[in-house]
């Protein structure tokens, strides 16, 4: 199996780890990882790296996008409909304009408390483990700084338990369940996440994602996404062939910086669209291009 990326459409009811385990069996390789965990109930884009491409996961872009359905008037212990209902309140009086007005509070750089049932570590333990031990009420969950680029209303369904469908673009670490919970709190009726579809993650989009059913059908002719494509968002530097060969051997090469020091960039030659990832660094008082991850084996 060649090295590269797969844009998987995660099905509902599966953990991200379940998806990796199945792919290891299908592709007959253990070296598989994923970017951006999805909750079991969520569906949509799950970027997967195969082989040596797993070392490139850290260089994928952070931004993500979701289509979320928020149910107002209901709170649960997991902040989604998978959990036990804590409160049920009539929200029939709410209007779309009242809800939209509150959405402005959740855009830009915001402070967010993760859901109690999440993988965030507190005092060396994951929150969901503490919650299952019945310690939720005793844990002071720290706020996290996250960025929400935009929230757009897609649909509004009024009623006793109205729902609002939102398109949300955000940075890494943002919990959509927390937005649902906090929106309901701001409106005085409570809220929880009804459903979640990830439409974009780490440069991969929903319209090009592949389901397990499609994967089974295409297994013998499967074409992985090349690292050159997946790393296309990084600034590029072209090396002469001989310098490229030396760089692939792990040598730093003298080069004037074209971007900020220590920022990753994609290293190429005229003959190869992707040698690996490098950074500019000062060595012996001189700027050099230093290998961070060499992908191409030197010839």
From TrEMBL:
Its EC number is 5.4.99.25. Keywords: Isomerase, tRNA processing. It comes from the Bacteria. SUPFAM superfamilies: Pseudouridine synthase. Pfam families: TruB-C_2, TruB_C_2, TruB_N. CDD domains: PseudoU_synth_EcTruB (cd02573). One of its GO terms (biological process) is mRNA pseudouridine synthesis. Residues 24-176 form the Pseudouridine synthase II N-terminal domain. Gene3D superfamilies: Pseudouridine synthase (3.30.2350.10). InterPro entries: PsdUridine_synth_cat_dom_sf (IPR020103), PsdUridine_synth_N (IPR002501), tRNA_psdUridine_synth_TruB (IPR014780), tRNA_sdUridine_synth_fam1_C (IPR015240), TruB_C (IPR032819). Residues 177-219 form the tRNA pseudouridylate synthase B C-terminal domain. Belongs to the pseudouridine synthase TruB family. Type 1 subfamily. HAMAP family: TruB_bact (MF_01080). This is tRNA pseudouridine synthase B. It comes from Adonisia turfae CCMR0081. The lineage of its organism: Bacteria, Bacillati, Cyanobacteriota, Adonisia, Adonisia turfae.
């Amino acid at each position: 199996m060649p090295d590269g990326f797969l844009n998987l459409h995660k099905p509902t009811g599966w953990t991200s780890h379940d998806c990796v385990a199945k792919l290891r069996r299908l592709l007959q390789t253990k070296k598989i990882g994923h970017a951006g965990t999805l909750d079991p109930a969520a569906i949509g884009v799950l970027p997967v790296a195969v082989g040596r491409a797993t070392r490139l996961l850290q260089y994928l872009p952070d931004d993500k996008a979701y289509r979320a359905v928020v149910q107002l008037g209901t709170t649960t212990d997991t902040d989604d409909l998978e959990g036990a209902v804590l409160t049920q309140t009539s929200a029939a009086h709410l209007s779309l304009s009242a809800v939209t007005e509150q959405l402005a509070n959740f855009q830009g750089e915001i402070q967010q408390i993760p859901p109690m049932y999440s993988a965030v570590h507190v005092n060396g333990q994951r929150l969901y483990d503490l919650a299952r031990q019945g310690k939720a009420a005793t844990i002071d969950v720290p706020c996290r700084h996250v960025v929400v680029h935009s929230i757009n209303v897609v649909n509004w369904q009024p009623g006793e338990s109205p729902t609002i469908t939102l398109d949300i673009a955000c940075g890494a670490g943002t919990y959509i369940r927390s937005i649902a919970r906090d929106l309901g709190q701001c409106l005085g009726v409570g809220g929880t996440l009804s459903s979640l579809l990830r439409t974009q993650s780490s440069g991969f989009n929903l319209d090009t994602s592949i389901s397990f059913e499609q994967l089974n059908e295409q297994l013998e002719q499967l074409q992985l996404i090349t690292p050159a494509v997946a790393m296309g968002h990084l600034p590029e530097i072209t090396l002469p062939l001989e310098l490229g060969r030396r760089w692939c051997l792990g040598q730093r090469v003298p080069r004037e910086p074209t971007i900020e020091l220590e920022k990753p960039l994609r290293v190429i030659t005229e003959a190869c669209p992707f040698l690996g990832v490098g950074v500019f660094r000062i060595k012996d008082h001189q700027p050099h291009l230093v290998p961070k991850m060499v992908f191409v084996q030197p010839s």
